[in-house]
Amino acid sequence: MKKILIPFIALLMIALVGSCAGSKKVAYFQNIDSISLAASRGLYDAKIMPKDMLTITVNTLTPEAAAPFNLAVSNSIGSRGQLNGGSGSLQGYLVDNDGYINFPVVGKLHVAGLTKNECQDLVASKIAPYLAKTENPIVTVRMSSYHVTVMGEVASPKVVQVETEKMSVLEAIAQAGDLTIYGKRNNIILIREDANGEKTAHRLNLNDAHIINSPYYYLQQNDVIYVEPNKVKAKNSGIGQSTTIWFSLVSIVISVASFITNIVRN
Fold first, then answer.
1. Nearest Cα to 164, choosing from 45, 256, 3, 78?
2. How far from the centroid of its chain's Cα atoms is residue 85's Cα?
3. How far, in Å, CA of 108 to CA of 160, rounded?
4. How high does pLDDT run on average in the chain?
5. What is the pLDDT of residues 152-176, one digit of tens each?
C-alpha cells in the first residue's frame, strides 16, 4: 500500500508547487508600485466614427423654434408587422461611410472624428442663422450605439453597452465577469477598426501596470476583446468526458485505499 501512496503524495506536492508558480501569472498590475502613471493623466473623449448612431436634440427658449431641428419618430413597424406609435422619441442619425449625417434644415454635416462636445458646437453654429439671436440653442449629442465585445476565457462573454461613452479594457472585462482561471492575463487581444475600416490587433498584458499608460487602455466603439486560453485549458480541451470520469474513479480508489490503510494501522 505504501508503494501506491508515496507516488500519489509526490504528485500532489508537484501539483501544489506548480500552482504556486502559476499564481504569479494571475495577479494584475504586479509592478504597480514601481512605475509612474503620469502618462495616463487626462480625460478620455470618444470620437464619432462611421456607422455610429447619434441622438441629437436641440432646445431653445421657445419650443416652436427648436421643433424643425428635432425630428420625432411618428411610428414604427413591430416584429409582427403591426404599426406602433413612436411616443415622441427622436429620430437617430446614422453616420455614413464618409462621416456625414443629414441634419434637418442645414443639410449634410461632417461629424466623424469629432468628440461629442465638438459635434454639439458644430450643430449649434450651423443652426444659429435660422434662429433669433435671443434663442441661445442648447444642443445635446449622444452616441446611442456605443458598444464593445468581450469574448474568450471570461466568465460571461457578451456585447457590453457603454452608456457613458467611456470604458477601459478593465471595466469591459469586469462587465463580462472577469477572466476565468484559464485566461491568459499577459496576452489579451484587442481588435480595433478605424474610421477607414482598417482592422488592427494589439496585445495587452494585465500583469503589467504599464497597461494603464497604454493608448489602448480606453476602448473605442466596436472594439473586440479576446482572452486566449492558457496551456492548461488547451490541453484539457482534448480530454473527453469518459477520461474525466476515469480520473474521478482513480481519485476515489486512492482515497479509499488511504482510508483503509489508516484503519489497519490503528
1. 45
2. 33
3. 31
4. 83
5. 999 999 999 999 999 999 999 999 9
d(C-alpha 53, C-alpha 41), whole Å: 29
Q: Which residues pair with 148 in a beta bridge?
A: 160
Averaged over 169-188, what is the pLDDT?
95
- pLDDT attached to residue 91: 81
Query: How remote is the C-alpha of 187 from its chain's centroid?
Result: 16
Answer yes or no: is pLDDT of 55 > 80.
yes
Which of 20, 23, 19, 27 minimizes the C-alpha distance to 208?
27
Whether 194 and 221 have beta carbons less than 8 Å apart is answered as: no
SS3 239: coil
3-state helix, strand and coil shares in percent for the chain, rounded to the nearest 5: 35, 25, 40
Q: How far apart are CA 147 and CA 142, in angstroms?
A: 13
Residues 58, 138 contacting (CB under 8 angstroms): yes
Among residues 33, 43, 7, the alpha carbon closest in space to that of 217 is found at 43
Taking the C-alpha atoms of residue 154 and residue 136, their distance in angstroms, rounded to an integer, is: 48
DSSP type of residue 191: E
